[in-house]
């Protein structure tokens, strides 16, 4: 269970789908791109720092990295899957040891992003830990990259 506690902070980011035959709005995408910093709370009430860095590649696919601090120090993971659509985010990360997966869901509200995370042993649907997180877009990210 100690390994699952390291993941008490992941939120998700989602992909904005293309319109009928076209691309998603560049203006909409731009408001999601950048760094989002904040904190997460685990089931025991522990709170610590987390951040998301979101970008879109040349093929229009969302990419992202999650950084968080826990009892083991600073951690980092790339999203294995990431979607952003209609102001909502959804993604999955895997802990650095490969033992657990974290499902992250969130909702954008202007320059704020809030959501939940659920930790499961890799290959299982059993949720062993849940928590919530909040982040705000960093000032540097608001002005462009």
Can you tell me about this structure?
It is built from three helices and nine strands. The protein is mostly beta strands. It has a nine-stranded antiparallel sheet. The longest helix is centred in the N-terminal third of the chain and has 7 residues, at 26-32.
Largest sheet: 9 strands, antiparallel
The CATH class turns out to be: Mainly Beta
The CATH homologous superfamily name equals: Quinohemoprotein amine dehydrogenase alpha subunit, domain 2
The CATH architecture comes to: Beta Barrel
What oligomeric state do the depicted chains represent? Answer: single chain
Topology overview:
Layout (H helix, E strand, L loop, with lengths): L1 H4 L20 H7 L1 E8 L5 E10 L5 E9 L2 E6 L2 E5 L2 E7 L5 E10 L2 E10 L7 E9 L1 H4 L3
Antiparallel strand pairs: 1-2, 1-9, 2-3, 3-4, 5-6, 6-7, 7-8, 8-9
At a glance:
This protein has 145 residues and is mainly β.
Task: State the main characteristics.
single chain; 145 residues; mainly beta; Lipocalin; nine-stranded antiparallel beta sheet; 3 helices; 10% helix; globular
